Amino acid sequence: MGLHLTSEQRLDDGVLERAFTLGEIPGVLWTPASASASAPAPAPLILLGHPPLGLDRMYPRLVARARHAAADGFAAATIELPGSGDRPRWAAAEQARAELRRVMEAGEPVSDEIVDALVLPLVDKAVPEWQAALDALLPLPGIGGPVGYSGGVISIGVRLAVVEPRIVAASLFAGSFVPRVMFEEARQVTIPLHVLLQWDDEGNDRQAALDLFDAFGSREKTLHATMGGHTGVPQFAGDAAAQFFVRHLK
Questions:
Q1: Helices (H) and strands (E) in the chain, counts
Q2: What is the pTM assigned to this prediction?
Q3: Which of 38, 137, 174, 203 has the fewest CB atoms within 10 Å distance of its CB?
């Protein structure tokens, strides 16, 4: 898939924000002011994962994370997930989300079948697209490896950590349902991990998040758990994740 830059703007802190399309997939690339073809070394790249809510809706949080990364000398990029934003509707995914809402509103337990239908097809579709994004972004002037992955959907991060050798460290957000098969994949993960868990996340199965952390095969793995709900991540928790990438990408 070819990458086409569609717009660019310089943010007030000097970060260059460029919108692009990868085939028909929209995305955004942020690079620090220090990243250029003449720079002494290319900027490492952090892939910014996010839930399938649409880039427009997620933009404020994504650009804040990208600015933070740029302040540490990193480029950051994200792409629209399958079935989200302006991408074509995905009937199976919408049906799975509707069933999840129905069950949760009724106060019923979320079955393994619902979780599998919701997450596994998304992982299967999204991971090759993230890899294609890496193929297209890493050759750009001023950008290079190593590469980190930051965010959710946590199962996408797990699969990428297993199959994508260019990713050398990952900061995973434990805020989404995890299919049981992903626990087997987690045992194959060996890169350094920093897992962020909001203890009172109303939509997250805390015990499943703890079990997934226990399953990871990485020799270096850190669980950073803080009190609060899904969107209540404190600044110091984000700072700790940023320092994790400074240690492993520089």
A1: 7, 9
A2: 0.94
A3: 38
Superfamily, domain 3-249:
Alpha/Beta hydrolase fold, catalytic domain (3.40.50.1820)
Smallest Cα–Cα separation from 215: which of 167, 239, 177, 181?
181
Q: Please report, for the chain, the start and end positions of each structural domain, with discontinuous segments joined by +.
A: 3-249
Per DSSP bridges, beta strands 193-198 and 221-226 are parallel
Q: How many CB atoms lie within 10 A of CB 98?
A: 10
| Burial status of residue 225 (CB atoms within 10 A of its CB: 0-12, 13-18, 19 or more) | middle
The burial class, CB within 10 Å (0-12 / 13-18 / 19+), for 31 is buried
CA dist list (Å): 48 to 70, 75, 200:
13, 10, 23
Q: Give the contacts of 99 (CB within 8 A, at least 6 positions apart).
A: 114, 117
Calpha distance 55→130 (Å, rounded)? 15
* 110, HSE (Cβ side, Cα atoms, 13 Å): 24
Q: How far is CA 241 from CA 148, 150, 195, 223, 226, in A?
A: 11, 9, 8, 11, 13
Task: Please enumerate, as own/partner, the contacts of 180-185 that have beta carbons within 8 Å and a separation of 24 or more.
Answer: 180/112, 180/116, 181/116, 181/120, 182/119, 182/123, 182/155, 182/158, 182/212, 183/211, 183/212, 183/215, 185/158, 185/159
Q: Name residue 169's amino acid.
A: A
Supply the angle between the helices 112-137 and 154-163 in degrees, to the nearest 10.
50
- What pLDDT, in 10s, does the model give residues 34-67? 776 556 679 999 999 999 999 999 999 999 999 9
- The C-alpha angle 7, 12, 14, rounded to 5 degrees, equals 75
End-to-end CA distance of the chain: 29
